[in-house]
Write a structure and sequence with these properties.
By secondary structure, this protein is of the alpha/beta class. 28% of the residues lie in helices and 30% in strands. Strand 8 and strand 9 form a beta hairpin.
Length: 541
């Protein structure tokens, strides 16, 4: 090389070095696309939007629209995007018919990169879930759930933690399942969940940081309140992409929690059933988030569906059993979560009446969380699809012989979460009970596996209980008398924390499908009442 060329060569080397240094120091942009509680809602559905005191109905959601957005964002920003789902992906008619195959194939085709599990994935048991996960084309991360044994159906389907690189940033992921899993789901005897979420998070963060993670993200299925509590107790956690509580956090409603180390944790959630796709934009400087923007996108008719995913869904839809009109409702039927989980609901009345009269039981109990749909079904035609949406879990009716004191205990547990709307809230037949939601709430004691085993603190909210005497009158519940109780198989097995139903002297599974019974009774012309019948009375408000 000629000496005269040295200055130019040195200048080029210097410029390249400076460019590299500037590029290294510049913030790196990362985009998370996130969904929560999809519930196998593969097709668009009608939602109600409220703004400025006005409401309007919009047909929103659908996995073909979600896929179109994910693919477009990935094409526009290569190596910057991660699409995730945060549990309760399985539920409803597509799950009951195709056992996870349809939903997981559609989510894979839509471009999901990573997910965690929710409690409803277990609605048909671990064997069905294990087979369904065979159709999954992306990775799952769950850190506090242990599936015992190498031959467990779930053992090979999820990881404890992992690191993925986007935009040159190493992102560490871990996942958290609700500690209540074994109490509220059909997990079998070989799954346990670590109860201390903060301890699990600290261990995973330390491990991920030691492996070079610059950013740490938790995929959680524990609910927004637990997310906030976790963020306030755990250092080094940058982002929580959450689910389980069905909170729709619109732009400006995301939670930003100060961590114990002085940093901040950004918490987002996108509601339920895929009406929105969450978009979280992060600018990162090494291991530090310097700025962010949260912007959930309504998946409405403005978005052209992805043709590949549309064809996939169409193929499965064609194989679904055809819907039939069962009855014409004389009144709207309120199946909203807030209604069935917080007070007497006509839909709960008729379901419990069906269980009680069909079995000849003294009493019937149905958890509000077992009635789904979260909508008001208008007066007019009621179809088999409507009922399948209301009862997606495949429960049958179990008949118990149990002392009155345990019925009283069950009612006390059912109202213990008030004023929060809880799935364990009980709809009833053959009973009337009075509730003071301001009184002391019952607390349950849990075993090492997270299952309810007893009473940690007695409740004082149920002030009076009457039982039908079958002659049209009402008499006080006798704590020592043995009653026959009809309930669903989930509650009879201790689901939702109802350990006291396990104290039954006798039990018999009738193998009567709750959904099928509801269908047959409505088809025979029986109508839900327009309003409640005074079965649950609130006092002391």
């Amino acid at each position: 090389m000629r000496p005269a060329a040295w200055p130019r060569t040195m200048l080029l080397v210097l410029l390249v070095s400076l460019w590299a240094a500037v590029a290294e120091a510049a913030p790196r942009s990362i985009i998370f696309l996130t969904t929560s509680d999809l519930q196998s809602q593969l097709e668009p559905y009608v939602i109600t939007l409220r703004a400025g005191g006005k409401t309007r109905k919009v047909r929103a959601g659908g996995m073909a629209r979600l896929a179109a957005v994910i693919k477009a964002v990935k094409a526009a920003h290569p190596d910057r995007v991660l699409a995730v789902t945060t549990g309760d992906d399985l539920m409803g008619k597509y799950f009951m018919t195709f056992k996870g195959q349809a939903t997981y194939r559609v989510l894979t085709a839509a471009g999901i990169d990573l997910g965690t599990l929710g409690n409803h994935e277990f609605d048909l048991g671990v064997k069905v879930l294990g087979r369904g996960l065979g159709y999954l084309g992306y990775r799952l991360v769950v850190s506090n759930m242990i599936a015992s044994g190498p031959d467990h159906p779930l053992a090979r389907h999820y990881r404890d933690h992992l690191i993925i690189t986007r935009s040159g940033v190493k992102i560490g992921f871990f996942g958290l399942m609700t500690p209540d899993l074994v109490s509220i789901a059909k997990t079998g005897s070989h799954i346990r969940v670590k109860q201390d979420l903060a301890a699990t998070a600290r261990r995973r963060i330390k491990l991920l940081r030691s492996q070079g993670a610059q950013l740490v993200v938790a995929l959680t299925h524990i609910g927004l309140d637990q997310d906030k509590y976790l963020a306030s107790r755990v250092a080094g956690l940058d982002v929580i992409l959450g689910a389980h509580s069905h909170d729709l956090l619109l732009a400006g409603q995301e939670a930003v929690v100060q961590r114990p180390d002085g940093g901040r944790c950004i918490i987002v959630q996108t509601g339920t059933r895929g009406a929105y796709l969450g978009r979280l934009y992060l600018d990162c400087d090494g291991g530090r988030v310097v700025s962010y923007r949260w912007d959930p996108l309504l998946l409405d008719a403005k978005i052209k569906p992805d043709p590949q995913v549309t064809a996939l869904i169409d193929g499965y839809r064609a194989k679904l059993p055809p819907a039939r009109v069962l009855a014409k409702l004389a009144h709207p039927l309120d199946c909203r979560s807030a209604t069935v989980r917080g007070g007497e609901a006509p839909v709960g009345d008729i379901v419990c009446d069906i269980m009680r009269y069909r079995t000849g039981a003294d009493v019937a109990l149905q958890n509000g969380g077992g009635i789904r749909g979260n909508r008001i079904i208008p007066a007019g035609p009621l179809t088999t699809d409507d009922v399948a949406t209301m009862f997606p879990f495949g429960n049958s009716i179990t008949l118990l012989r149990i002392e009155g004191r345990y019925i009283r205990l069950a009612l006390e547990w059912g109202v213990s979460a008030l004023p929060d709307k809880s799935g364990r809230f009980l709809q009833v037949s053959g009973l009337r009970y009075w509730v003071n939601p301001r009184a002391t709430a019952m607390r349950i004691k849990k075993g090492p596996d997270g299952k309810a085993i007893g009473v940690a603190r007695p409740g004082e909210r149920v002030t009076k209980v009457l039982v039908s005497d079958r002659r049209g009158g009402w008499v006080p519940l006798d704590d020592r008398k043995v009653y026959s109780v009809a309930t669903n198989t989930y509650l009879a097995a201790g689901g939702d924390g109802y350990f006291m139903l396990g104290r039954a002297q006798k039990r018999r599974n009738t193998y009567l499908s709750l959904k099928s019974l509801v269908e047959s009774v409505l088809a025979a012309g029986h109508q839900p009442k327009a309003a409640g019948q005074g079965r649950i009375i609130f006092v002391g408000k």
